[in-house]
Specification:
The complex is a heterodimer. Chain A is mainly beta. Chain A contains one helix and eight strands; from the N terminus they run βββαβββββ. Classes of the chains: A mainly beta, B alpha/beta. β1 of chain A pairs antiparallel with β9 of chain B.
């Protein structure tokens, strides 16, 4: 169970994680915001589809890749939350077909 | 584009100290770092902690804030939130900042990529809820986020430090599962007398262990056969200790058994590396001043061989003195004179480091996967059995194995599996690690969007030197 020890009155931002509206301290990492709301699955492994989550939290394992504002492969531990941000678990496996992004 | 005197990659203790020294010597310096503030991993957020009180993190961490303040007062260009993705031996640096690639040129380059944790490929290590002790540190320092009721498993100072920090902050800890092998105490004993010359460090370590013991959390020693329990997420840890199989329920399991240089930067530059048998990792070859096999490229700090934050500060300063000499700003005699105390200090620190390295020498059974089904390459999902199959088909070296199995080809670019693959091939071939080698790495060293690449036209990075002209 993740918990915040933050006691300062840091400004808050509101973001959406997998459809759930979440309030987080500005400047916080996306990963930490996910962990604190109990949504710790960041991606599914591309071949097996197994659940994965942050392992190193410092940018070297690439396990916490999520989709941020429509852009996949974003490391949740390296990105900071922002007002209005949309974060979703990255569910891109070998069976997925690419969408045509248009001209 | 005007070339800078020196570009420093990484703003941890080595990079910050070097930058201060170079600026003092009159060099035009730019420092690139991924963080929003300087500090690196060890002094992460030391300048602006989200914690109400940082005293629980210890005086070493608080001292980091002073170095960051000195760095931020220094007249130099600091590119924060900047991820270097190409470093050329022609002095060209490409880095990504807010989705745009920028470019700068430098006469000298100093690499300070720091350390990362040695992966611990026990069964179940890819389950959500399994993280490194360093991850616990990062979450605590950057985000004041902690995991309640976690099990800490492994060996080494960083593991004990985070457990003590949790306890000081009143965060419940379920257990400490210590994997330091019994034999290590015997092996390290002969190095103790020389290590005692740094009695302060030793006392600090003993006080830390005593603090954990007096907190009364369950502690298990000489643990072996670790396995994370759970199907879709971690549910607990199974291990043997004291001749018994034990199972402890926990949602979060923090693993740790030492750190190793974060290799990708020095490897991608094709610098000469050597295997460090004491620390069981590759490290870039340097002289006493951090100069690598390419003269105008230097490396300092843990990224050039694990020496700790205090050592990194000294190494950063030594590298800076040598770079000032190479730039013609310091005579050889002056360089040597100014370097003497630092070189002596590093030499004085070496026996304690050697003692720690031997005492917390990771067990092979934890460093290399033992179970055929355990993933070695987390990105491309290659198990021990898959790699063995590749080896049996004739892939004898890391690059051949990579081509055949895709091991090391995923987004982490071998950061996690690289050392394991070297170790496994060395075992299977019954040949020394040096004969096996490592992956050949290339730019880009970070994930880039196709958008950034397709619009790729490097923007000259503004430096304070140009701005002032």
């Amino acid at each position: 169970m993740f918990r915040s020890l933050r006691s300062d009155g840091a400004p808050k931002v509101t973001l959406t994680i997998n459809g759930q509206e979440v309030t987080a301290a500005a400047g916080q990492s996306v990963w930490s915001a996910m962990a604190l709301t109990g949504q710790s699955v960041t991606r599914r492994a591309a071949l097996s589809g197994e659940n994965r989550s942050a392992y190193c939290a410092m940018g070297v394992c690439f396990e916490c890749m999520v989709i941020i504002d429509g852009l996949p492969n974003q490391q949740a531990c390296l990105h900071r939350v922002a007002e209005g941000m949309t974060v979703t678990t990255q569910n891109i496996t070998q069976d997925c077909e690419a969408e045509n992004a248009g001209p | 584009m005007q070339a800078l005197d020196c570009a420093i990659i990484g703003a941890g203790p080595a990079g910050m100290t070097a930058a201060i020294e170079l600026s003092k010597g009159g060099a035009k310096v730019a420092v690139l770092d991924r963080g929003t503030r300087a500090g690196g991993q060890i002094y992460r957020a030391a300048a602006a902690s989200p914690l109400p009180n940082t005293s629980a993190l210890g005086p070493d961490y608080q001292a980091g804030a002073e170095l960051i303040a000195a760095f931020e007062r220094t007249d130099l260009t600091h590119f924060a939130s900047s991820d270097a993705w190409h470093l050329g031996d022609d002095g060209r640096v490409l880095f990504s900042h807010l989705g745009e690639t920028h470019e700068l040129h430098c006469r000298e380059m100093l690499l300070c990529p720091g350390a990362m944790e040695r992966p611990m490929p026990i069964p179940g290590w890819t389950l959500p809820g399994v993280m490194t002790a360093g991850a616990a540190q990062v979450m605590l320092k950057s985000d004041a986020t902690v995991a309640e009721g976690a099990v800490f498993a492994g060996s080494g100072p960083l593991l004990y430090l985070i457990v003590a920090q949790y306890l000081r902050l009143g965060v419940p800890v379920t257990a400490l599962v210590d994997t330091t092998p019994r034999q290590n105490y015997l092996n390290a004993a002969p190095l103790l007398p020389r290590a005692l010359r740094q009695a302060g460090q030793l006392k600090k370590g003993i006080a830390l262990l005593r603090e954990i013991r007096s907190a009364g959390i369950p502690q298990y020693r000489f643990a072996e056969n670790l396995e994370v329990l759970g199907q879709n997420k971690a549910k607990g840890l199974r291990f043997t200790s004291g001749g018994q199989i034990r199972e402890i329920a926990a949602e979060t399991i923090f693993l740790h058994h030492g750190v190793q240089p974060n290799l990708n930067m020095t490897r991608a530059m094709d610098l000469a590396h050597r295997w460090n048998p004491q620390q069981l990792c590759w490290q870039v070859e340097t002289d006493a001043f951090g100069q690598t096999s390419i003269q105008h490229i230097s490396a300092a700090g843990d990224g050039a061989g694990i020496i700790g934050a205090d050592g990194a500060r000294i190494a950063g300063r030594l590298a800076a003195l040598n770079i000032l000499h190479r730039l013609g700003r310091l005579s050889e005699a002056d360089r040597n004179r100014q370097a003497t105390p630092g070189i002596a200090k590093l030499a004085a620190m070496a026996p304690f480091r050697a003692f720690i390295d031997r005492l917390y020498h990771p067990a092979n059974a934890l460093r290399l996967p033992q179970n055929p089904d355990t993933l070695v390459c987390r990105c491309e999902e290659q198990t021990l059995a898959d790699l063995r199959e590749g080896f049996n088909q004739g892939a004898r070296d890391p690059n051949a194995l990579k081509s055949l199995t895709r091991c090391g080809m995923g987004p982490c670019q071998g950061r996690q599996c690289g050392h394991m693959v070297t170790g496994l091939l060395s075992q299977w071939r019954a040949e020394p690690t040096e004969a096996v080698g490592y992956y050949r790495l290339r730019s880009p060293q970070r994930l880039l969007t196709l958008d950034e690449l397709s619009r790729f036209q490097a923007v000259p990075a503004p430096t304070h030197a140009e701005a002032a002209e």
